[in-house]
Amino acid sequence: MTRYDPNRALDAADWLRLDEAQRRRLVEAHHRSRHCEHPPTPDPTLHALVHVTVEDQVALGESTPVAAAVERLCAEGLARHQAVHAVGACLADHLFNTFHADHADLAAAPPDFTAYYDAVRALTAASWLAVSAEPAEDDAAFAAACLSADTDVDVDEDDDDAFDEDDDELDDDEFDDEGGDDEDFDDSDALSDDELTPEDLAAMGDEELVALLSVEEDRVTRAVVDEIVARRERLLGSLVGLSISPAHWRAPLPGWWAPVHATFILAAIDAPAVDAVLLAAGREALALGNEWILEPLPAMLATRGPRLHATLIHIAHNAAEPMALRRIMFDALAEAAQRDAGDRAALLPILRAALDDGAQDVEARTAAAHALIDVRDEDRREALAAFGRDVLVPLRAQLGFVEFDDEGVHREFAAPRSPPRPPADWLTFYEPAAIAARQARWAEEDADDEDVAEDDLLESEAAESETPRPPLQLGAKVGRNDPCPCGSGGKYKKCCGA
To answer: What is the largest CA-CA distance in the chain?
Structure first.
């Protein structure tokens, strides 16, 4: 895909094959060209981000009401570009309201996109034309929502060599037919992160700095993270965009790592507006089985403090939520109770009530029991042992296992309690030793795969010499080290190919 035209419906597969930087640059190219119907906006980068986010949601089809709304608005007489602006204005209003909500409101309930979706469904051509006299209105709201109205985006003019003033098409060598990586960020550039000094990073423009999250895979350094955190007021909107977009979580490598990095960094920023973003990112990670996020998520949520407790409790007790998410919420409550004596006093009664509530489903009571074991609630030690003996053990035949029994409870209470994670412990992901250990692990796995592939080839050749060759089966073959087609983000050999 080498051209973006907001007045033409996109091919969803082609669009989603591009990474975030490629999509944004296509949108910016169109808005610099003679084909754009409206005058330049005050902040072209933010305007492009609105377009990209809306087009991402359109490309996801029926999972959101956006695609249907754009189609409906076009049928009512709007140009498709106008329809994208109309939905973008709803998105900007939603983000503005989220980021500027009262702190207590943010903690009252889990993130809710109902208002945004309702606004999108309620859009009509007439209602949009009545309020769209100011073409840049949605940009202003979006800028305020992202807390980045003063963002100074440093764009290298050399990046625009593929454009001329009269054309919005990109050269084919920048986006190949395979939907390949942006040439500006090839693998050789990506490997240079560890060579960048703090002075180099400080001299980078905001856009160039954030782009490292999309190209460095799991080799982003702590220096990069620290520089992004230092610019948090300007870059918060970009990090949120990476963290909450379903398209980013489902992107191929190397962009697959970008929402992971963005979520780690956001979790280190103590801003109430980030709380709902972390919950949304956790839902995406859970849907895809992304253990890089799921493992530290309870600690990330626990460090947000009491303002998030009501939300964690609400989700933990909500039977309509996925049980795996509810367990994470109980784990987060246990983590919070271990961190602060005041939190412990406030949360223990809630965890005890969840354990004692016979009307609750057994899985929720078990999750509450694990939380109480983690915090070593001596007042409920015997009740926990009785729960294991009288409730969980009888389920052995049905479940095929027992989570714990009465003896297991007493062993846990006798063992030393594991201390809670240090604040921002997940950022050890970026320490040199952790990076080196991961690269060694990948290299070892690749070597093992080569040995297995060689053995498979020898066995296959031996078998072929004894049996007729089967008919050739046409179709793409997934390599063991390729991302699993199921969308989990893991390697095929560790997922569906296991």
So the answer is: 77
